[in-house]
Amino acid sequence: MPELMRDIVGLPRVGSPSKRNHSALLKHTLTLGVGVLLVMFLVGCSAATQPGAGETGLANAAKDVTIPLEAGKMKNPLPESDEIVSQGQEVFLGECVQCHGAEARGDTTVGRNMTPPAMDLTSAHVQHWSDAELFWIIQNGVRLTGMPAWKSTISANDTWKLTRYIHSLPKAGAASASMAGSTQAQTATSSQDKYSLKIPNGLAFSEFRGYEGWSVIAISHNGGALAAILGNPEMIDAFKAGIPGNGKSFPDGAKMAKVHWTAKVDSTEPGAPTVPGPQHDVDFMLKDSKRFADSGGWGYGAFEYDAASGTFRLANLGDKPPQGNDAKCGVACHTSVKNKDYVFTSYGHR
């Protein structure tokens, strides 16, 4: 066999031992077969065109046979608990969502344009892999696909958490659908005091009473949403004192609110500006170093708004992006700005 072909399918360049495990032999044989078919499929195929079902299926089948037999012998050392699944979701939102999407179905611009497209992690093909096999794929990546090796970025412990989260996706989808139906029925028949809402072990809406009148820190336009980022007096005073640029942390009691509206173009105004449409949600942050010591000193909360009923509810795993119902729902994203005391937004000059 040409040496290049051996490299493609992962076989050694030199002779193999005379005695080998039957399963290993079978796996190498399957690998060789899939590798040959892959070469047949890919020769002459343009990356500028979308791969067909056969090509995509073959590339996904290659993932099955490239997992070493030894990988299947590993055991996930972490329990299958809600806490571990939630932590795995935080890892997913921080590292995987760009390609696989908030619902883990690969339905993103980046994911759809990969060759083959990013896999739907809720699919039967992915769900049949064990935690150990998923662990190996995440850590080592897969040749001839867009799946990179995450070994240098995601720790082994976090990878095990991620496998727990991936295997929880089918159950989470069913639970979210049930929760959404229950929430809609409840809000349609009752008026609401938004300040009665509280995230379990997290922030209460009432802690941000009066946020509507806080000073504007900055505004943002991201995708289809407009947002105003607001700060209470403690937050504004800290910004004016040079925090976080001076290397200091925001003081306890500093609060931020981020109000999102669906963006719309107002063609009746000169220049057809993009303006706020219906409110979408409001997100909160509160600095309390003792209360939220395990999430960088900040507590986070997300509350979705339903314009039809005029009510808020706790954000959940069915939302885009999905939110866990705890004080750490935003810590994965904000960890990327840890050196700015977990705050993305700078105080806008005016």
TrEMBL record:
List the InterPro entries.
Cyt_c-like_dom, Cyt_c-like_dom_sf, Cytochrome_P460, Cytochrome_P460_sp
Q: Enumerate the spans annotated as Cytochrome c domain.
A: 83-170
A Pfam family per the record: Cytochrome_CBB3
User: What's an example of a GO molecular-function annotation for this chain?
Assistant: heme binding
Q: Which UniProt keywords apply?
A: Heme, Iron, Metal-binding
The protein's name: Cytochrome C oxidase, cbb3-type, subunit III
Q: Which organism is it from?
A: Terriglobus roseus
